[in-house]
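new request in #modeling-help
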Amino acid sequence: MQFGSDNQTGASSQVLEMLTVANSGFTHGYGDDHWCAQATEDLKKVFSCDLEVYFVATGTAANSLALSCLVQPWETMLCHHQAHILQDESTAPEFFSGGARLIPISQKAGKLMLAHLARYFHSLADEPPHTPRVGALSITQANEAGLVYTPRELTDLCSFAHKHKMHVHMDGARFANAVAALGCSPADLTWKAGVDVLSLGATKCGGMVAEAVLFFNRKLAESFIHRRKRSGHLVSKGRFFGAQFVGWLKDNHWLELAGHANKQAHHLEKKLASFSSISLKWPREANEIFVTMPRQLADFLHNSGAEFYQWPANALPPGIELEEDEVFTRLVSSFVTTDEHIDHFCRLIHKYESTNNLGR
Amino acid sequence: MQFGSDNQTGASSQVLEMLTVANSGFTHGYGDDHWCAQATEDLKKVFSCDLEVYFVATGTAANSLALSCLVQPWETMLCHHQAHILQDESTAPEFFSGGARLIPISQKAGKLMLAHLARYFHSLADEPPHTPRVGALSITQANEAGLVYTPRELTDLCSFAHKHKMHVHMDGARFANAVAALGCSPADLTWKAGVDVLSLGATKCGGMVAEAVLFFNRKLAESFIHRRKRSGHLVSKGRFFGAQFVGWLKDNHWLELAGHANKQAHHLEKKLASFSSISLKWPREANEIFVTMPRQLADFLHNSGAEFYQWPANALPPGIELEEDEVFTRLVSSFVTTDEHIDHFCRLIHKYESTNNLGR
Amino acid sequence: MQFGSDNQTGASSQVLEMLTVANSGFTHGYGDDHWCAQATEDLKKVFSCDLEVYFVATGTAANSLALSCLVQPWETMLCHHQAHILQDESTAPEFFSGGARLIPISQKAGKLMLAHLARYFHSLADEPPHTPRVGALSITQANEAGLVYTPRELTDLCSFAHKHKMHVHMDGARFANAVAALGCSPADLTWKAGVDVLSLGATKCGGMVAEAVLFFNRKLAESFIHRRKRSGHLVSKGRFFGAQFVGWLKDNHWLELAGHANKQAHHLEKKLASFSSISLKWPREANEIFVTMPRQLADFLHNSGAEFYQWPANALPPGIELEEDEVFTRLVSSFVTTDEHIDHFCRLIHKYESTNNLGR
Amino acid sequence: MQFGSDNQTGASSQVLEMLTVANSGFTHGYGDDHWCAQATEDLKKVFSCDLEVYFVATGTAANSLALSCLVQPWETMLCHHQAHILQDESTAPEFFSGGARLIPISQKAGKLMLAHLARYFHSLADEPPHTPRVGALSITQANEAGLVYTPRELTDLCSFAHKHKMHVHMDGARFANAVAALGCSPADLTWKAGVDVLSLGATKCGGMVAEAVLFFNRKLAESFIHRRKRSGHLVSKGRFFGAQFVGWLKDNHWLELAGHANKQAHHLEKKLASFSSISLKWPREANEIFVTMPRQLADFLHNSGAEFYQWPANALPPGIELEEDEVFTRLVSSFVTTDEHIDHFCRLIHKYESTNNLGR
């Protein structure tokens, strides 16, 4: 019953196997090897375009390195108020960019929309050098509320951004889940919509430790190798990062893993809807479900071995306030979530409701 | 009719004279001279306490150097949404602090109040190292809306801050105006209320180029000399900075200058209240007045030689939206604002209203 | 015949196996798992002391994160003129430390000795805040010339450093090779000699991607978790880093791997000594050999499939200048270097010498 | 008898007077005023070219801001081993550049020469991203040893630098002294020789607090206004900086001041040559003299009211070692150094020598 995070899993067996294959023999270090070359070719095919690819060990590194290529230290990076780069990556974006500024503009909406951008620009004091210059827009796909952006929405955001001299970064820690959920091509959700650079995460969806930064706008990548090296993110045995991606992408493996996670989240959501003690905060779109429940129930579930995290109140939609004895939680499914995990979890809720004479 | 900013003036004659006196002879460089020593003694007397004092050339340097002593690069600095450090100092706070994060918490209120702090902490996700740690609170006195904090308000803010392991910085670019407006002692508005460090600005109120950073909490000053030197803010001929403060503080000169500015703002406010085309946005408390007026009137005034700045819409109180043909402006008085400046300005408005058959 | 670098190998089978074992099931992320706990316990036993351990993906990250805990941005980091942190890690030490300064003090000697430290301090202008303050000493063990420091030498360096208010960092990318070469205990080469923090590299000696930062001086570790997170070096699936170290340390595996590499370097050195076209620049002590050879020979070897790197002329001892047609190269053995690699390599040299009527 | 530093003087009366004139009336802030405009025009005339000019308060700010426009954080800045930016400005160059690296290459010579550059490049390991990229060359004119570079020497250095993709910065804290000493045009010593940007210091030679950054290569100035603002170096009452330069440049005032300082240094040098207890270390070229003398004499002079600084041993030429009871000192003349200062100083030395039966 692990719904804590999709990073609490191991690697998929196909990824692990590829790592083992890659282990034998000598290769050049620092990414100058045929595994990285193969992974790069595979990514070009998956995204149907030429691109620059760099592998790193963490999503925070991928995001911050990417952003640091898009902004000057006296510029701003606009994002959703729950963006991982804003809420969960310490001050990494500031560190890598040399002190550029993150500005949340989504006004508590589930997704960052064109109207938010327009409104931000409408009331913006724009007097450089006194005011920082607008530099980049960062969009998470699937986002931190488990919601996905359609190609149309992305195109609107990117067009506006480019018109206002911003570059666009996409945090794709759960990009696979978004692709699986929307049924669009990876290209439609990225460069065709105007995304300049994508942090593509394999770790949460079957990788071991594998993130890639993909530059569709290749001239923005110019300084990347220097930034990666001086931040300690150029791994010496680079082959193992290439190999993970080769294994992950092979035969559509990545989308099968993501599809499974989404499907299981869908099942869980449907089942949860039948409980009176559980309140879904908004409809699920990928592999994350957000609910409120009595604190007593949460405690009971935790004590019975279920894993899931309480979520910060500032992620609630506007106007929704938590009751004193209520908790706001996130439930995440993954590529290894089984029906049994879900059934067990629901049986516990049922037991709780029965004991407390709840239920419909 | 210069109401653009109080930094559009020269220095007061008393300050200028002291500079001339200080010019003769040799002294050691870098602040190791009797003028700086004298200014330090004078400041101790004015604030009725022992303290560490450092002189710098700009308010941005004073604020950012002070803040950088209060926070680690993985911490946050809470402030008002219109704080000068957030809106008008580029990304200086990030630069000096090595990438700490500014977070506005005032929710569009005129002043940052205890309730804002409490609310922020209530919904805060606090999971270091993922989330940045809370590090400092910065309060501007008099603030960017021209409002002043009472000793009671400051004490409440500082107590809360200290209880939550934040240090407190005060941006005192217009501290003199606040002291003059409130009639409190400098001590009451700073260390007695719990302020750890004050950026004390003389420039806007009679100085030439003179800001001081005052550490009431002296152990926070430990790294200051290194930070000031490596940011290029240790001036070689330090005597001229000490001399300006000696001249500024002598015989209560600073409070007379500030009192005059406040008084003239009061007169201007009273006169403006009688015009139907001018709408005061909130009551004045120090030397700044915020009004909306028809764009046509603003143009007429500018063309007639009046100086004042249009102000960004994001400084308006919640719920107030600008009409299409309306402008939001700030009017600032200074130590050299004369009755004639005010009368001339008002005559122009009167003329505009007469011509357009307005007026009450 | 791969003598290019010990990072051109895969992982040892014992390490790889442990990764596979660790892959199954769920664990908490970010190092909060039993693999990391086990690895920490193992390291405490190996070093016979209590300590703080943090795992990261690269040696550059380990070094720079460690150093950043030892110095302020207005301080210096003293090191050998060929130190990896100075020559091969871009400006990572500056980036992580916020701009502290690396200063080479070894005056072209093979090892950084007490006399170098003494001489540096003798002629040092020490006038803070004008001059940067001395902050840390970094020693590489085994060092970039393949030489090892004895416990006595380390104790002398560390004592001097501590007396002058410097903290001591050890770059242990090849620490295993040093332990195996010296036959000392890990404790003797670190905390007992006065080392405050060690970057312990497993990658070059049987790991896949595994470096650990060990704080013997535990209070220096206070900010580490924040620094690691904001530099993107906190991996989500931390178990895989713990698992590598568990596998690496188990049953003295790490020292067997290092011992093998050293032994093979010893064999190679002995054999090379018999060739007139090869000139050993200084006696080998661990797993690296530095030689000069005719450019023609180097080309022949490369063309015949041998891997080794040309080394920069600034690593030559004082007084030694390269001839026009001569190259300076480094030969590195590793845990997978076989007798056959060595024999093949030497047969090629023999062939070259015969063809050219060289040889003794 | 103040020979401590040329920054221990006040401002020249012409500069002070201009400040007083500039004090009256209103002007726009932040350099948008007619004084700054006038100073800019004056500088264009003095340097016989178009250029970008920015005023700041200190030489450290001028140097570091200028350098930060020339290098990326993963690049190096080559300089003389006694360069002020290396020895006397804390880690300001690292701070402003985001962590670029200063590398002294002059090998203890009095001036940085073409041969040093050539030698440095000869033995340089150039393997980005592992090695930092070479970015800029900084030359001080007149330099920290009081020596001046001829147009020919500058042209050679700049040509080599540009050929190797470096930009060239000139630290002109004593540029006026160099111009006066060489009798060249300012253009010959800067843009005509290939200098891209000059830090022009007025402070040490008659200014109060006035430094200018002049970009001859104007496209390098692109980010300057942002860098200046976010480092707190955009002064609000900018007119006072423009006014100082207007006063300083008017009617060749700056060169008269510098010429006087040089001339007095010449007189002092000539007189010192006659004392057996004073040993001139190298011939004076501008307004600084470097000598060794018995510690007893130095103490006697200090006790008799003379001001001069002991100088660090690492500034001595190679092969020269200080005796135990000997001190190395610097004597600086300035625009206010009188014959009487010099005579008094020499009378004291004479007295010391007589008392100790020294003298020729």
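bot summary: The two ends of chain C are 24 Å apart (CA to CA).
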